[in-house]
Design brief:
By secondary structure, this protein is mainly alpha-helical. Helix content is about 85%, strand content about 0%.
């Protein structure tokens, strides 16, 4: 039981005193970058999927 208390105490101390948290502005910029990257990646995958589907359907109908 003492080891659990020590672990929790040390974890709390580390989170409060040793971890450097990003500023709110930095957090916003990084979030926007991730959202934009995700949208671009999603669009690319969608376009490739639609193109493959169209090409595959045309190939099957032309057999």
């Amino acid at each position: 039981m003492d080891s659990i208390k020590l672990y929790l105490k040390e974890s709390y101390n580390e989170l409060m005193n040793k971890v450097t948290w990003p500023s709110f502005a930095s957090l916003q910029q990084n979030t926007i970058a991730v959202i934009i990257g995700t949208l671009i990646f999603t669009a690319i995958i969608y376009i490739l999927g639609a193109a493959a589907k169209t090409l595959l359907v045309d190939f099957i109908y032309n057999l």
